[in-house]
Amino acid sequence: MKVLCVTGGCGFIGSNFIRLMLAGHPGLSILNLDKLTYAGNPENLADIENNSRYAFARGDIADRAFLEEALSRGPVDAVVNFAAESHVDRSILDSGPFVRTNVVGTQVLMDVCRELKIGRFVQVSTDEVYGSLGPDGLFTEDTPLAPNSPYSASKTAGDLLVRAYHHTFGFPAVITRCSNNYGPYQFPEKIIPLFISNALAGQSLPVYGQGLNVRDWIHVEDHCRGVEAALLKGRAGEVYNFGGRCELTNIELTRTLLRLLGKPESLIRHVTDRPGHDLRYAIDCSKAERELGWSPRISFADGLKSTIDWYLGHGEWVEHIRSGEYAKYYEQQYGGRL
Ligand code: NAD
Ligand code: TDX
């Protein structure tokens, strides 16, 4: 593989993925296509923007003419689709952009890949397509799809289109489904960076309900190595789950963050629960371990400590975000509740 197209590369996981791929594959060039929504931040890739193996074009994966032009500039061997609307709470406020990008965008992107005969496609999806678990059990690749939020429903619809394109047209796609990521460059609307930056600013931490919902945490670098393995070794038409084998309730996570930051538990504020809030996510990633030779490497203790250090060292990055468009959303989301 010589040229890889990454969509959504200015977001959290996409930017970490591009950095990992450039560092690990000296002969590889990357074309990053990103619409630069509120979540797309070119600062996330400031350190590589002058790399001769990196190119960027701003545009929408639902815009066929843009994709045809950008992907015809030279031969592209594979596409990894990270581009998405990714925040559950925003999908509850307005699901329109989720359907446009996560469903229509995926379909248009696949149509252009078919037209240009691009030989490999990875759809980066989420464990949320499986719905919610009770206290026991794990999501496997065979767990029935049962999304509960507009976000997860839109990701599921995208996945089903990928599945159908493989079945109908032999489209050379694999789907990856990962649990909750954390790490550097995560937008501070997701719980870990939000709570770190609120605590550092002396603001309260809005825990939804009792904080008993469980998430399975994985460091973004482990997820990116999984996407890399699926791209290089995954079998077309297959789904691969990735998870960190690290289940925590939100209140346990919140207390751990406050302890590591040296901040008091009095900052915890229990607020109205998220509507339709999924109780528990937990992943069985044994298929990826078996077939792709992948496994998560970064312990939660090490990963959380390095993530906190990263946010401590990138106050300006957080400030640029919190002083802009995000501030308006935060007021709308939490204004009446803090
Ligand atoms: P993010 O919100 O940080 O980044 C999304 C990126 O996509 C942004 O750069 C944005 O500008 C871009 N984008 C949005 N709409 C676009 C469009 N129409 N055309 C082109 N670009 C567009 O998201 P993330 O957390 O990095 O997630 C990346 C992918 O991984 C998503 O598909 C998400 O569903 C999936 N995922 C995320 C997690 C997680 O914990 N964050 C876990 C599993 C799977
Ligand atoms: O302020 C908050 N308070 C709170 O209690 C926020 C933002 C979240 N929460 C809770 C809700 C969830 O139980 O924390 C948990 C994690 O919430 P998010 O960080 O919003 O993540 P989640 O809804 O679990 O979805 C994430 O993981 C799967 C990503 O945002 C998705 O893109 C990914 O697919």
Structure notes:
The chain has 338 residues and is an alpha/beta fold. The protein has one domain: NAD(P)-binding Rossmann-like Domain (Rossmann fold, 3-Layer(aba) Sandwich). Helix content is 42%, strand content 17%. The strands form 3 sheets. It has a 7-stranded parallel β-sheet with strand order 3-2-1-4-5-6-10, sandwiched between helices. The chain starts with a strand and ends with a helix. The mean pLDDT is 96. The structure holds nicotinamide-adenine-dinucleotide and thymidine-5'-diphospho-beta-D-xylose (TDX). Thymidine-5'-diphospho-beta-D-xylose is lined by residues 86-88, 126, 128, 180, 190-191, 194, 206-208, 213, 215, 250, 274. The site of nicotinamide-adenine-dinucleotide (NAD) has 30 residues, from α1, α4, β5 and β7.
Structure, briefly:
This protein has 338 residues and is of the alpha/beta class. It contains twelve helices and twelve strands.
Rounded radius of gyration (Å): 19 Å
Question: Approximately what portion of the residues adopt beta-strand conformation?
Answer: 15-25%
Mean pLDDT: 96
CATH architecture: 3-Layer(aba) Sandwich
Count structural domains: 1
Largest sheet: 7 strands, parallel
Question: Largest sheet, order of strands side by side?
Answer: 3-2-1-4-5-6-10
GO molecular function: dTDP-glucose 4,6-dehydratase activity
Domain NAD(P)-binding: 6-306
Enzyme class: lyase
InterPro entries: dTDP_Gluc_deHydtase, NAD(P)-bd_dom, NAD(P)-bd_dom_sf
